[in-house]
Design a protein that fits this description.
Layout lengths: L5 H19 L16 H22 L13 H7 L1 H20 L1 H17 L4 H25 L6
């Protein structure tokens, strides 16, 4: 008998979400005369890829046996300490979303990128700081220029 493992549950949830969102892309406006493919093309491509990857996870999980042991129970403080980086990234993203309309794209995204990379990479060595600042101060203006001048999309 099959048991519901984490991989199977994730795959099933992702398949359902991708299916619902793919069905909802029918409500995106049809292409105009100057759009060859329309606005729904890119979301549909992404959702099909997500659905296929979820299907692969589901198939792969069917060929693996479920782990027999249960994970040990942790105290809430231990759980918080173990997941502090992920929780910090959620809080950082929330602050980014709040500051984006106030400070604009470039300043708030630079602050977010530097902070997020500092959390993920750590900043215990000058090389990590150099990588962090180099990536942030290169990618943020590059994305801005691509959207502003290449795609003609105004960023806040």
């Amino acid at each position: 008998m099959l048991t519901l493992t984490k991989d199977r549950a994730l795959a099933l949830v992702m398949l359902v979400i991708a299916g619902i969102m793919l069905a909802e892309t029918r409500h995106i406006r049809p292409p105009t005369s100057w759009q060859p493919y329309g606005s729904a093309l890119f979301p549909r491509i992404l959702l099909v890829v997500i659905g296929l990857l979820a299907l692969l996870i589901l198939i792969r999980s069917l060929f693996q046996d479920a782990p027999p042991r249960e994970a040990p129970r942790r105290r809430f403080r231990e759980w918080l300490a173990h997941h502090r980086i992920v929780l910090s990234l959620f809080a950082l993203f929330g602050a980014y979303a709040l500051l984006l309309p106030l400070l604009g794209y470039i300043i708030s995204t630079l602050a977010f990128m530097v902070s997020a990379l500092a959390l993920l990479l750590g900043v215990d060595h000058w090389r990590k700081w150099a990588l962090n600042l180099g990536a942030s101060f290169t990618l943020v203006p590059l994305v801005y220029v691509i959207f502003r001048y290449g795609l003609r999309v105004w960023l806040p």
